[in-house]
Amino acid sequence: MAPVNKECDYLVIGGGSGGLASARRASGMYGAKAIAVENKRLGGTCVNVGCVPKKITWNAANIAETLKDAKAYGFDFKQGLPFDWTTFTQKRDAYIRRLNGIYEKNLKNDKVEYLHGTATFVDPHTVKVALDDGSEVSVNAKKILVAVGGHPNVPDIPGAELGITSDGFFELQTQPKKVAVVGAGYIAVEMAGMFHALGTETHLFIRHDTFLRTFDPMIQEKVVAEYERQGLHIHKQSSQSKVEDLGNGKKKLHYKDSNGEGSMEIDTLLWAIGRAPELEKLNLGITKVAQNDKGHIKTDEYQNTNVDHIYALGDVCDRGYELTPVAIAAGRKLSDRLFGGQSDAHLDYSNIPSVVFAHPEVGSIGLTEPEAREKFGDDSIKIYSSSFTAMYYSMMEQDEKGPTSYKLICTGKEEKVVGMHILGVGSAEILQGFGVAIKMGATKADFDRCVAIHPTSAEELVTMK
């Protein structure tokens, strides 16, 4: 069967949040003929195996922690409250399917043609799409956006395939009794925290002595200490040598850590050791688009690649922010520039807030303390910090109280706030508002002029001495 030939102004390869936002703006707002291609589920990583189902699961873990804390507030549960993992995951998955449908409906509303299949470059302007029914569509496009996202890495050791990745976390139909999570980034920390809060015996294997190593040292030290206080088993300076299948769903992980060599029988092994761009099937080489040493597409701040009509955004490119709102914002700005006549439209990549849904939550914007000292020099930096016990914990015994720690990093005579790092209850919601202030160039004096809201944890941020 001869392939169907199509032409368009804008071909978007990848149906994640960033690609869809760009396609919809190009078509719905500016009238460009746009085609979007996706070979899995619409919404990409975030909607299907990332932020959305993660936050729902974190909510469940947070409720479990609240139930545990309730006794200190006078609630007396006469019987245990077991968590029904299976019912929970079925409800969560149904919600995600509804979102997939909403994404497809939004494409139709903005007149974006949607092809469900796998795209492969034939030449720099032409992409072949293998559809689900075995047929092919050839698309010739004036401009092409590569927004295919990434996929989790798996290590090259014997038996590694017996583990799952963050994708597989959302496919678990029953709750593991004992799990090993390998990794030190936010995905590993979040998933280990959720497993533990929901009652799974959790072992977290990290290569160094702390995790979240791109975050401010205060965050690293405090969250590691809190995870240890809560009873997670953290294996520091660790490496893994092989995994064995013991049958009946059991595995044996062989490892080395700061205590020497060991092995462990587990129900589930989760690899969270980083992600790689999803470029294996795209035949990108034929376009001569440049990539860095990790395979990410090189782009400038305008999302341009080295090939005039080919652009990239999101997790596939080398901008360093693997965050859904970043991809959405970059995608919309790109369409403003390409089709909306806004020649200088581009995303400002400075002061982008980010959150880790750990236990407790972590929020960060701007420079870490080491980064600020390197950029401005020790003499130009002033640090304000506060560590305290949030009022939420006032009714609890000392060994049940979680930490709250805040840090402001200021520079220059005007003490401009160039970094803010917070951990504790409510940090995700707190950071959004303060992020606006820092993006606007707030100084410590601006913070001080804001009257505190009492009693809150966030008031500490406007009363630091």
Automatic annotation (TrEMBL):
GO terms for biological process: cell redox homeostasis; cellular response to oxidative stress; glutathione metabolic process. Transmembrane segments: none annotated. Its EC number is 1.8.1.7. Binds 1 FAD per subunit. The keyword Ribosomal protein does not apply. Its cofactor is FAD. Residues 352-464 form the Pyridine nucleotide-disulphide oxidoreductase dimerisation domain. Disulfide bonds join 46-51. It comes from the Eukaryota. It is found in: Cytoplasm. NAD(+) binds at residues 183-190, 274. The active site is at 454 (proton acceptor). Residues 9-331 form the FAD/NAD(P)-binding domain. GO terms for molecular function: flavin adenine dinucleotide binding; glutathione-disulfide reductase (NADPH) activity; NADP binding. The keyword Oxidoreductase applies. FAD binds at residues 55, 315. Keywords: Cytoplasm, Disulfide bond, FAD, Flavoprotein, NAD, NADP, Nucleotide-binding, Oxidoreductase, Redox-active center. It catalyses: 2 glutathione + NADP(+) = glutathione disulfide + NADPH + H(+). It is an enzyme of class 1 (oxidoreductase). One of its GO terms (cellular component) is mitochondrion. Belongs to the class-I pyridine nucleotide-disulfide oxidoreductase family. Catalyzes the reduction of glutathione disulfide (GSSG) to reduced glutathione (GSH). Constitutes the major mechanism to maintain a high GSH:GSSG ratio in the cytosol. This is Glutathione reductase.
